[in-house]
From TrEMBL:
This is Universal stress protein. Belongs to the universal stress protein A family. Pfam families: Usp. It comes from Haloarcula terrestris. InterPro entries: Rossmann-like_a/b/a_fold, Universal_stress_UspA, UspA. Residues 1-142 form the UspA domain. Coiled coil: none annotated.
Amino acid sequence: MYDAVLVPTDGSDGSATAAEHAIDLAERHDAELHALHVLETEQVVDQIPDFEDSSIFDRLADAGQQAVDDLREQAETSDIDTVTTAVEQGVAHEEVVNYVERHDIDVVVMATEGRTGPSRELIGSVTESVVRASPVPVLAVKVGGEA
Protein backbone atom coordinates (compact mmCIF):
# COMPACT_ATOMS: atom_id res chain seq x y z
CA MET A 1 0.00 0.00 0.00
CA TYR A 2 2.83 2.42 0.87
CA ASP A 3 6.10 2.42 -1.05
CA ALA A 4 7.50 5.70 0.27
CA VAL A 5 6.97 7.26 3.70
CA LEU A 6 8.01 10.84 4.49
CA VAL A 7 8.71 12.10 7.99
CA PRO A 8 9.50 15.81 8.29
CA THR A 9 11.73 16.53 11.27
CA ASP A 10 12.84 19.58 13.19
CA GLY A 11 14.95 17.56 15.60
CA SER A 12 12.43 17.88 18.44
CA ASP A 13 11.20 15.12 20.72
CA GLY A 14 7.87 15.33 18.90
CA SER A 15 9.59 14.64 15.59
CA ALA A 16 11.38 11.66 17.12
CA THR A 17 8.02 10.27 18.26
CA ALA A 18 6.57 10.75 14.77
CA ALA A 19 9.68 9.08 13.36
CA GLU A 20 8.97 5.96 15.45
CA HIS A 21 5.56 5.72 13.78
CA ALA A 22 7.02 6.40 10.33
CA ILE A 23 9.72 3.76 10.80
CA ASP A 24 7.14 1.21 11.91
CA LEU A 25 4.91 2.04 8.94
CA ALA A 26 7.82 1.80 6.49
CA GLU A 27 8.89 -1.54 7.99
CA ARG A 28 5.37 -3.00 7.80
CA HIS A 29 5.01 -2.02 4.15
CA ASP A 30 8.62 -2.67 3.09
CA ALA A 31 8.75 0.98 2.05
CA GLU A 32 11.46 3.57 1.63
CA LEU A 33 11.75 6.11 4.44
CA HIS A 34 12.40 9.76 3.64
CA ALA A 35 13.51 12.23 6.32
CA LEU A 36 13.14 15.93 5.52
CA HIS A 37 14.20 19.04 7.40
CA VAL A 38 13.15 22.47 6.14
CA LEU A 39 15.22 25.53 6.97
CA GLU A 40 12.63 28.22 7.51
CA THR A 41 14.86 31.18 6.76
CA GLU A 42 12.40 33.61 5.16
CA GLN A 43 11.77 35.46 8.41
CA VAL A 44 15.42 36.38 8.93
CA VAL A 45 16.68 36.79 5.37
CA ASP A 46 15.43 40.37 5.12
CA GLN A 47 16.82 41.30 8.53
CA ILE A 48 20.39 40.05 8.07
CA PRO A 49 22.40 41.24 5.08
CA ASP A 50 24.12 38.35 3.28
CA PHE A 51 22.24 35.90 5.51
CA GLU A 52 23.10 32.86 3.38
CA ASP A 53 26.77 33.71 3.81
CA SER A 54 26.50 34.11 7.57
CA SER A 55 27.45 31.76 10.36
CA ILE A 56 23.81 31.79 11.51
CA PHE A 57 22.75 30.13 8.26
CA ASP A 58 25.58 27.60 8.64
CA ARG A 59 24.45 26.75 12.17
CA LEU A 60 20.82 26.35 11.07
CA ALA A 61 21.89 24.16 8.14
CA ASP A 62 24.09 22.05 10.43
CA ALA A 63 21.22 21.61 12.90
CA GLY A 64 18.93 20.56 10.04
CA GLN A 65 21.45 18.06 8.78
CA GLN A 66 21.88 16.73 12.32
CA ALA A 67 18.10 16.30 12.62
CA VAL A 68 17.87 14.12 9.50
CA ASP A 69 21.06 12.25 10.43
CA ASP A 70 19.59 11.48 13.87
CA LEU A 71 16.47 10.16 12.19
CA ARG A 72 18.54 7.99 9.85
CA GLU A 73 20.36 6.63 12.90
CA GLN A 74 17.01 5.99 14.63
CA ALA A 75 15.95 3.94 11.58
CA GLU A 76 19.17 1.88 11.45
CA THR A 77 17.82 -0.66 13.95
CA SER A 78 14.86 -1.38 11.67
CA ASP A 79 14.53 -3.56 8.59
CA ILE A 80 14.19 -0.58 6.25
CA ASP A 81 16.41 -0.93 3.20
CA THR A 82 16.38 2.67 2.00
CA VAL A 83 16.52 5.84 4.09
CA THR A 84 16.80 9.07 2.12
CA THR A 85 17.55 12.36 3.86
CA ALA A 86 17.18 15.92 2.62
CA VAL A 87 17.52 19.44 3.93
CA GLU A 88 15.52 22.03 1.99
CA GLN A 89 15.06 25.77 2.42
CA GLY A 90 11.74 27.61 2.32
CA VAL A 91 8.32 27.66 3.93
CA ALA A 92 7.99 24.38 5.84
CA HIS A 93 4.53 23.23 4.75
CA GLU A 94 5.14 24.23 1.14
CA GLU A 95 8.46 22.38 1.00
CA VAL A 96 6.91 19.26 2.55
CA VAL A 97 4.17 19.21 -0.10
CA ASN A 98 6.70 19.92 -2.87
CA TYR A 99 8.85 17.03 -1.61
CA VAL A 100 5.82 14.72 -1.62
CA GLU A 101 5.15 15.56 -5.25
CA ARG A 102 8.78 15.37 -6.42
CA HIS A 103 9.52 12.02 -4.75
CA ASP A 104 6.23 10.14 -5.21
CA ILE A 105 5.62 9.91 -1.46
CA ASP A 106 2.59 7.83 -0.46
CA VAL A 107 2.08 9.02 3.13
CA VAL A 108 3.45 11.74 5.40
CA VAL A 109 3.94 11.11 9.12
CA MET A 110 4.46 14.16 11.29
CA ALA A 111 4.09 15.38 14.84
CA THR A 112 1.28 17.67 15.95
CA GLU A 113 3.84 20.01 17.48
CA GLY A 114 7.55 20.59 17.18
CA ARG A 115 10.15 22.95 18.59
CA THR A 116 7.74 25.86 18.74
CA GLY A 117 5.39 24.01 21.09
CA PRO A 118 1.63 23.94 20.93
CA SER A 119 0.88 26.78 18.51
CA ARG A 120 -2.71 25.65 18.10
CA GLU A 121 -5.12 23.85 20.38
CA LEU A 122 -5.46 20.63 18.39
CA ILE A 123 -2.70 20.48 15.81
CA GLY A 124 0.54 22.29 14.98
CA SER A 125 0.33 25.02 12.37
CA VAL A 126 2.81 23.37 9.98
CA THR A 127 1.10 20.00 10.34
CA GLU A 128 -2.30 21.58 9.83
CA SER A 129 -1.10 23.30 6.65
CA VAL A 130 0.37 20.04 5.31
CA VAL A 131 -2.88 18.18 6.09
CA ARG A 132 -4.81 20.78 4.12
CA ALA A 133 -2.44 20.91 1.11
CA SER A 134 -1.06 17.38 0.82
CA PRO A 135 -2.12 15.25 -2.14
CA VAL A 136 -1.46 12.12 -0.02
CA PRO A 137 -2.64 11.00 3.43
CA VAL A 138 -1.02 12.63 6.45
CA LEU A 139 -0.72 10.75 9.73
CA ALA A 140 -0.62 13.39 12.46
CA VAL A 141 1.02 11.90 15.56
CA LYS A 142 -0.22 13.53 18.75
CA VAL A 143 2.68 14.45 21.01
CA GLY A 144 2.97 16.47 24.17
CA GLY A 145 0.22 17.38 26.58
CA GLU A 146 -1.91 14.88 28.38
CA ALA A 147 -2.81 11.60 26.75
